[in-house]
Structure formats: C-alpha cells, structure tokens
Amino acid sequence: MKATLLHGPKDIRVGEVPDPTLRESTDAIVRVTHACICGSDLWPYRGVGLGPDDGSAAEPQRIGHEFLGVVEETGSDVNSPQRGEVVVSPFTFSDGNCEFCDDGLHTSCVNGGMWGSDGVDGGQGEAVRVPRAEGTLVRLPGGSDEALSASLLTLSDVFSTGHHAAVSASVKQGSTVVVVGDGAVGLSGVLASARLGAERIVIMGRHTPRTDLAKRFGATDVVPERGAEGIERVRELTGGHGAPHVLECVGTDDSLATAVGVVRDGGAIGRVGAPTYANIPQSAEAFFRNVTISGGVAPARNYIPELLPDVLEGRVQPGLVFDKAVGLDDVADGYRAMHEREALKVLVRP
Amino acid sequence: MKATLLHGPKDIRVGEVPDPTLRESTDAIVRVTHACICGSDLWPYRGVGLGPDDGSAAEPQRIGHEFLGVVEETGSDVNSPQRGEVVVSPFTFSDGNCEFCDDGLHTSCVNGGMWGSDGVDGGQGEAVRVPRAEGTLVRLPGGSDEALSASLLTLSDVFSTGHHAAVSASVKQGSTVVVVGDGAVGLSGVLASARLGAERIVIMGRHTPRTDLAKRFGATDVVPERGAEGIERVRELTGGHGAPHVLECVGTDDSLATAVGVVRDGGAIGRVGAPTYANIPQSAEAFFRNVTISGGVAPARNYIPELLPDVLEGRVQPGLVFDKAVGLDDVADGYRAMHEREALKVLVRP
C-alpha cells in the first residue's frame, strides 16, 4: 500500500510499504478515508528530532497521527468496532482499561503509544494497523457523512486538543479567556471555550483569515500585538489584571511568557502547544502571582464521546480549520503549504 | 524602640529605630509579643538580593514578616481589631476588600505589600505599624494563651504556607501525598495534608529529628534518598507511578525536578518553596505526563479563619516546628542557628 514517508528535512514522499496485517488479537486494520497534517508534524518535517546527528532520518519514517476510516479486519479479541464500521482514531492508542485510562488520561496508558513510532503505522497512508483497537477507536454511529467528515476528523487531535486547553485552564460558563496563538489549535481552543460557555474570548494572533475564523468560532476580541505590547493590550481589554483562563496554543518560550503575562493573578494556563522550550519561563512571576500551569498532551480518546454529539448534530463545526485538501500523492505539497503558512491545516484524502 | 536590622551578609543586629506611629487612618500599631525567623529570611541574610552590586545593603534593612502581638493604637477608620486585643498578622498586609482579597488571594491585594519593604516595618522588632489593619490582622478570641502562642504564630506564614501547598496540590480525604523537603514548611505541609485527610504521606528528607517530627505530624513514610534514587524509591512506595499530589517545599531547581519525578501522570504539584530557580525545569516531561504546576506565595490571610479553630482547640500543633527561642537581643544567634541548620525554626521574643 501507499504511505507517507519522511526521508529527511523537507524531503517527504509517498512510497510503497507492506500492507498492514493483524499482529495481536487486539489489533484492527483500518482503511483510512481521511487523514490530515498536524502542526506538530512540521517539526520532524523541518528536521527537528530527526536522526541522531546530521538531521537526516536514519531510514524513512512513517508519519501522521490523525485519521478516520473504515474497519477492514479485526483481531479475535476485538468485539467492537466491527468490520465495515466507520471509526475515528485519537492521536495516541490506548487499551481503555488501565488505571490511567480509567482516570481519563489515555495519553498515559500503560499499553499505549504514538502513531508512527517504532513498528506502528503512521496515519497518513492508505491503511493503519491499530493496536488496542477496542480501547482506541471510536465508532461513528452515523457512518460516513461526507459533509461532517472534516469536523469528525478534528476529534482525532486538533479540536480535542483545543478542548483540553480549555478544560486545563478551567474555562466554564461566563469565563473570560485569552487564547495565545491563531494556528488550528488556537482556533479550536476558541471554539472549545465558546462551547463551554465562555463569555469573553480574546485571541492573540495577527493572520486576518485566521482571526476571522476565530471570530466565527466565538472570539470577541483580536489582539495582533505580540510581546510586552500584546500583554499590555490584553490587560487593557480585561480590566487591567488579565484573564483568569489562558490557553497556550503555540509551544514556544515567547508564547508561554505571553501566557504568564496575560493571565490574572490566581488564574490558570492550559498549555497544549507541543513544547519547544526546555524550561517554563517566568517562574518567579508565576509563583508570586499564584499562576497555575496545567495542560499537556491531550487525552483525545477521553474527550471524543463528550464532543461527538455536538459535531454530529452540527452545533460546532471544528472542520472549518481545514482550508486545503490534497490527495495522498500530493501530501508533500500539503506539508509545503503548511510550512509556508499558505494553509492553516491540510486534509489528506488517501 | 528596638528592631532587627540587616546591615549586610551575615551581619544582623538589633538596633534603635523610631517608634512606629499611625500614618494613615487605616493603620494600627501592634506591640509584638512573638515573632520568628523564616527560611526565606535566610536569603537576604546570606546576601542574596541585598544591595546593588557588592551584596552589602545600602542601608540597614528591617526584616521579619511573622508576628503575633497586642493592638496598642488604631487609626480612626479601624473598627476591628481594637486596642488591647491579641492579633496575628499574615506575612503580607492586604485591604480585605479588593477583587483579589474577595477571591481569597490576599497576596495579590491591590493595596497590599510585604513587611520590611520600603517604609514598612519588619516583624522582628518591638512594635509594628500595620497598614490596612482591618483587612490584615486576625483577632485571637482567646486572648494570649502562652501554651498556644507558638502554634498561633505559625498561622502567620509557615503553617498557612504548608496548607497552601496542600490545597494547591488538591490534597483531600484519602489522598496519597509526597512532600519534598523537611524544613519547617515541608513539615507544615505534612501536617496540613494530614489535617485534610491524606491517607499516605511520604516525606523526602534526611534529617532524622525533622523526619521524626514529620511522622508525629502524620507522615507514613520517609525517603532520605535524593535525585534519581529518591524518585525511584518514592515510585516503589506508590505503586510504580508516583503520587497524584506533591508538595514542593524547598524552591530549588533540583527539588522541583524531584517533584516532577515523583508526581503521578495527571497529578498536581503545589509549589511553595520561594523559587531560587529562574525557570521551571522538566517542562517537556511535565507536558507529556499532564502534570499541573500550581501554588505560589501563600495567601495566609485567607486561610487563618479556617485553620484557627483547629489550632485553638489543639487538634493540630504546628508550633512544634519551633525548636529554639531567643530574646530580641539574641536574634543574630537565631539566624546563625538556622543558617547552620542547628535549629529548624527559631521563635523570637521581643
């Protein structure tokens, strides 16, 4: 079958790989109908963390961790989902019954892991062997409704991650929220905050098409300024003291420092931007102002059952973050477009 | 009157200062009967943050932020406490009616501040001018009961700070807790956790007299090992995954890294050790394991009304952290003893 392979920095191609087969009785094979490219896929695409020294991958690496598809085959211990059912996969697999899954923290599952890691398929291909299929996959009862597919696919990662940021920052009915970052995760954070009843949502971002979508998702204010100026502007908008709930959706030193700068004393930052910083900055400021830093990698599997009805019934349309679609053969163009910020988020149709 | 003055690194003396007088109608004058030395007083004592270049103070600096005493005089806008009443002061002053005080975050009071800062008396002296007296001071209804004085004094900072660590780490009935550090704050964190109903309390510390007191306060396990070895030992004691609730009561890079190492995925660290680190370490590990980092400077004023009855009725005895008492004239010996770890915490009797 065909799958996306990362050969080295900015060298991404579709190539032939062996068809996936069941290895464990808890596996399933899913034929992928919809996949996509994540902001975090751009890090290895740019060479970060690839290979041991020179930045080039030792051998071509499978990639992609968001997909929706049809169950083709199941191991003998998989009772659900069944062959022919449409499923969405969270961006990590998990057994669904360890102590962490019981707590809703499927990303820490003792039998879990990441797509594309050693011996595990990536999501940007024609099919995927899904370990722990019963714990991992979520059936989509309506089957495959094309109009909804893009939004259903966001449950895999980006919308669930935005929701995790909001939950980690304790967003609730009537909240005042600041979202740092206007990437697909930031926009999803706006939508998730609005869904949870936030009254005031300030997005910090400077790309008008993106902040326009943020407004459609429920943002009430846009702050294009960055750094000290941006912090000052947000404080002006929030009565001088900042917002009690801040979603950090970028993952850099600067964005985290901005998050600390705009959060109200005693407030919480939900950080979901994959960290490119080694240490959390502004430690003393956060301490003396009693700022809580929460969040992390989103346990999407835990959130999908809660978010799914709102997507199925059209109350939220997180799939609007996709502004480009490519066939699997053109996946390299999708990466290029996201890397060059020409596209916000790219759908891949194998 | 006499007050403690810090002249330079390890040069601390009692000297004559002007008697405090009412400056604002919201002030009170408190005659200090009991004060004490805080671990955080040792930083300026050692020269950290003192003066602009050479570590020596530009002019002698007032010091001390924990005290209990008798109201001697009140400004015209102070209805309570009244002259002659015994009061305890939290380690920051606050107006009690701004939006932060309303939220219980008195350390962020818009009219608040620290003892010993510009134009504000330190607590280690014969008397103190208390700004915002009505918002700041807490009346001790029983008057001054000498047997209870030491424990009542801990409400000012150390016991309230241990309580804040436990609250910030979400300790509750039945919790498994790890306390990093066996200083007076760590021991107070043990006591506060036990008071909140924690079932298992592991203290990380290697000073037997201190860990013995920790056991008396409710610690169930003592881990003397540090670093990777200490983390390993705590994980063994907590089913392999660490504890959901960790109190960081030291404030160094190493202690915070240890806290991240011993916290269970999805758990919370309540940090109250005044940070000597610029940035919070182990950022990526905390992110991928969804560790929440909470806490900060403790809003003691918010906690005193809740903690006071248990102290007054003898259900907790936080004053056991004092293992040395000095008269005001011997305050330098108290600093020396704490600096050399000869004493855990020193009571000062003006």
Automatic annotation (TrEMBL), chains A, B:
Instruction: Give the Alcohol dehydrogenase-like N-terminal domain ranges.
Output: 26-141
Assigned keywords, A-Z = Metal-binding, Zinc
Alphabetized Pfam families for the sequence:
ADH_N, ADH_zinc_N
Gene Ontology molecular function terms on file:
metal ion binding
Entry-linked Gene3D superfamilies: Medium-chain alcohol dehydrogenases, catalytic domain (3.90.180.10), NAD(P)-binding Rossmann-like Domain (3.40.50.720)
Q: Which cofactor does it need?
A: Zn(2+)
Alcohol dehydrogenase-like C-terminal domain spans which residues?
A: 184-309
Origin: domain of life: Bacteria
User: What's the name of the protein?
Assistant: Threonine dehydrogenase
Organism encoding this protein: Actinopolyspora alba
